[in-house]
Amino acid sequence: MAHISAGVATSHVPLLGRAVDTRDTQSEYFKPIFDGYEFSKKWVAEEKPDVVFLVYNDHATAFSLDLIPTFAIGTGEKFKPADEGFGPRPVPDVMGSPDLAWHIAQSVIQQDFDLTIVNEMDVDHGLTVPLSMLFGQVEAWPCQVIPFAVNVVQFPPPSGQRCYNIGKAIRRAVESFDADINVQIWGTGGMSHQLQGPRAGLINQAWDNQFMDDLITRPETAARIDHVEYLRETGSEGIEMVMWLVMRGALSEQVNVRHRHYHVPCSNTAIGHLILENSA
Fold first, then answer.
1. Beta carbons within 8 Å of 189's beta carbon, 6+ residues apart
2. Helix H segments across the chain?
3. Could you tell me whether strands 94-95 and 78-79 are parallel, antiparallel, or unpaired per DSSP bridges?
4. Where are the domains of the chain?
5. Percentage of the chain surpassing pLDDT 70?
6. 247 CB contacts (<8 Å, ≥6 apart)?
7. Residue 113: enclosing H or E segment and its boundaries?
8. SS3 of residue 160 by DSSP
9. Which of 36, 49, 91, 171 can bridge 250 by disulfide, Cβ–Cβ 3.0-4.6 Å?
10. pLDDT tier at 280 (50, 70, 90 boundaries)?
């Protein structure tokens, strides 16, 4: 049967994609950030996932105020990089995993979670930047990817508890898929940041690191954090961290921490990164 071997959490700041695309990762500003992913690139090359189930949020490219799905799963065969105003990123098309994606959709819906099924969409930096951070510049991504978009842009977003619970449903779905494949689940976004208003530039290092501590050892505690606390403590965009809870919910209760990285700032954002392997 298929299995989820590990989870990855990472920020998806668009400026990091620009640094990769322009080969500027070793400049004074970017080097401390990218140094924190050197272990990760070696690790993922050794682990060789067949499929990455990538939890991200769309930034008004595939979806807009005309259509706002809370949870949307990409079931297509291929997803092109989106044009976010400056042309598409010069990265490979994302090759999907339709059979597994459809199986997950059916299983999760039958577990009483409502999903929007998307056969065609372009994917923006929320999805392509994490791939670049772990795989670097490549001619083709080395695994299939299932995009899983979560609405954390327009109120009301799903609660952390809802995201944690749907992660558990995704794990059950993967483990019931009749194929011997290695699946990783990545939760992206965050950490603390606010991009507008009088609190623009807000970063809360203490809160971010406590969240990572709780995500590792007390995920039920992290899942109970409400929207108001995210807004108050981590800024208007800090709510993206609920997507890390989808990843954590899909892992075993006890996990092994293979890597942890935190750095500020990057484009007025706190960068956080974890690699968690299932202990059972």
1. 11, 12, 56, 57, 126, 152, 240, 241, 243, 244
2. 14-21, 31-35, 38-47, 98-110, 125-135, 160-175, 205-217, 219-223, 227-234, 242-249
3. antiparallel
4. 12-76+88-272
5. 100
6. 7, 8, 9, 55, 167, 185, 186, 187, 276
7. none
8. helix
9. 171
10. low
Architecture of domain 12-76+88-272: 3-Layer(aba) Sandwich (3.40)
Q: What span, in angstroms and rounded, lies between the C-alpha atoms of 271 and 129? A: 13
Which DSSP letter does residue 119 get? Answer: S
pLDDT tens-place string over residues 16-45: 999 999 999 999 999 999 999 999 999 999
Q: Running DSSP on this structure, what letter comes out for residue 31?
A: H
3-state secondary structure of 209: helix
Contact 53, 170 (CB under 8 A): yes
Structure token digits, residue 86: 């400056």
